[in-house]
Write a structure and sequence with these properties.
Helix content: 55-70%
Shape: globular
Largest sheet: 2 strands, antiparallel
Order of helices and strands: HHHHHHHHHHHEEHHHHHHHEEHHH
Mean pLDDT: 75
Distance between the termini: 24 Å
Strand content: under 5%
Low-confidence stretches: 15-34, 97-130, 198-219, 290-294, 464-476
């Protein structure tokens, strides 16, 4: 779908842009003049085209309408063929979606605006403090949000294949990747945000930021870290409590084998974010580099900590009986269990832990997943060189001079190899319920491979007027499609709205006995509302958007 979208955009410039050029008498495609009378019509036309190209295929691949590998393969071949024949389509299409404002400010890579701290210090640093923008990552994150949005409602219909559901014990399920993908993306964006806030993407700047007490890095005070953790964790905790109250109050159907009796994914996110903030404080105080001669070689402390947690955790799962306890243990403590001491002293806490063991113990695996994701982002997503000619030391030994897609490909191959070794040689089955080592490696492999494919597609598509300048070699890349950009920007709001709509559909429609036609109609309206809500938020907060 992404490939077809950019092909259509390249071969068929939007007619509203052509009309605007004709009226102005120039060739500037960045300023689009659209009257109020045709703005809604053009926007609706573009929304239908983008929705059909990008969202509808995501729905089809998650239904029984495309059985097994044959259906998705036919859909893929058909869309690739349509992309190759795109030059034969009508001469103008309303792509991309017209901007809400009359001007679109391009990214200026050489802009040097001192930040507040720099002004206070009286020094002007050569690199601006801004966000490192990677369009392929925006598309990947939006796709994860949309695929999850589709799955949480489609799973209630007979149209949804049962093999895609979350696994009860061991194995692989399509829906198992949803929560893990959120954690992976959080790790990637966290690493990029740290790099951007350091005023440079070089390794030296990363060291300076983490150790600087005035930038909120690792050397920050306990109060600063506490405020940062509260800012991140409080919304997630409140959302988790609201979800718990509504599920129990409305007696909404839920599977306790997913996270436990009272736990949900928002509580897991809350714990992971809090631990991530605490770890950054510890990492900054203890240092993050090892010096070899005159060069600085970064220690992947995130990955080291992740391995330090996962190895003993996996040993307890495989040899200590923890996996058996998670899968078949009782939901209440008794004197005959290994937790008998807790029954005597803290019975309520013991019962709470046993009842929610999947969610509580799963924090170990998800936090390890988050840490590994941050190290992968530093290796694969940060630019290979800065404008000052400095190299990305994190990528030393892993094709440090290679483009992003090549680094992603190498890391994907390493991760898939590690996953196969753990599952085949060590015979450890993949388990979402315990978030064991194979599950962590599988989630990383899948997301890294998907991002690699998206980056490969975007590198192959010729650039058009809708481009953005990246920090790596000042190359030009496409902007994400408007729908995906809006979903990416307001992912949490989109996810919450989709959960609310899913609950309303389940309360008003007998989903278990719905026909395929009725299910597809409901899913289409549901997704149109979700995407429309994302675009509405993008419109309302257009002035606050940061490139």
């Amino acid at each position: 779908g992404i490939h077809l979208y950019y092909k259509l955009q390249h071969h068929h410039p939007p007619y509203y842009a052509a009309d605007a050029r004709k009226r102005r008498g120039d060739d500037d495609d960045r300023v689009v003049a659209i009257t109020n009378s045709n703005r809604i019509i053009i926007g609706l036309e573009c929304f239908i085209i983008e929705f059909g190209i990008l969202v509808v295929p995501m729905v089809l691949v998650q239904t029984s309408l495309l059985p097994y590998f044959i259906g998705p393969t036919v859909l893929l071949v058909g869309m690739l063929a349509l992309a190759q024949l795109s030059s034969l389509l009508p001469t103008s299409l309303p792509l991309p979606l017209p901007p809400f404002t009359k001007t679109t400010t391009p990214v200026i890579p050489n802009q040097t605006t001192p930040n507040k701290q720099q002004q206070n210090d009286g020094h002007h640093h050569p690199h601006p403090q801004r966000r490192l923008r990677i369009p392929s990552l925006s598309i990947h994150r939006a796709c994860v949000y949309l695929l999850t949005t589709i799955a949480i409602l489609a799973v209630d219909f007979p149209l949804f294949p049962r093999r895609f559901c979350k696994t009860e014990e061991v194995g692989y399920g399509w829906m198992d990747l949803g929560a893990a993908s959120f954690i992976v993306i959080a790790g990637w964006t966290s690493a990029l945000s740290s790099s951007s806030s350091s005023s440079s993407s070089s390794f030296d700047a990363c060291v300076e930021t983490v150790g600087n007490k005035d930038t909120g890095g690792g050397g920050s005070s306990i109060m600063t870290l506490t405020r940062k953790a509260m800012k991140k964790c409080t919304p997630l905790l409140l959302i988790g409590l609201v979800r718990l109250a509504t599920n129990k109050g409305l007696e909404y159907q839920e599977h306790i084998s997913e996270y436990g009796v009272h736990w949900n994914f928002f509580f897991t996110l809350c714990c992971v974010e809090g631990l991530a903030v605490a770890w950054k404080g510890v990492r900054g105080r203890w240092g993050i580099v090892a010096t070899t001669g005159t060069s600085k070689v970064p220690l992947p402390l995130d990955g080291i900590l992740a391995l330090g947690m996962m190895i003993p955790y996996q040993f307890l799962l495989s040899k200590g009986g923890l996996q058996e306890f998670i899968e078949n243990g009782d939901r209440r403590c008794d004197a005959e269990t290994a937790l008998s001491f807790a029954v005597t002293y803290v019975p309520s806490l013991c019962d709470m832990f046993v009842a929610n063991r999947e969610g509580i113990l799963g924090v170990v695996g998800y936090f390890s997943l988050r840490l590994l994701s941050e190290d992968i982002a530093r290796v694969c997503l940060l630019p290979t060189t800065t404008r000052g000619g400095e190299s990305n030391e994190y990528a030393v030994g892993i094709a440090s001079n290679a483009p992003m897609k090549h680094r992603l490909c190498i890391v994907s191959a390493v991760l898939w190899t590690a996953h196969l070794c753990v599952t085949i040689i060590f015979r450890i089955p993949n388990s979402r319920r315990s978030t064991n080592a194979p599950f962590v490696l599988w989630s990383l492999s899948h997301n890294t491979s998907l991002l690699c494919m998206i980056q490969h597609v975007m590198d192959r598509v010729p650039t058009t007027t809708t481009t953005t300048t990246t920090l790596e070699n000042n190359t030009q890349q496409q902007h994400a499609p408007r729908i995906l950009e809006a979903v990416n920007r307001f992912g949490l709001a989109v996810f919450l709205s989709s959960n609310i709509l899913t609950g309303l559909v389940n309360l008003t429609v007998d989903t278990l006995h719905s026909s395929n036609a009725k299910a597809m109609s409901i899913l289409s309206v549901y997704l149109a509302l979700v995407c429309g809500f994302a675009l509405l938020l993008d419109r309302l907060f257009e002035k606050k958007k940061v490139d």
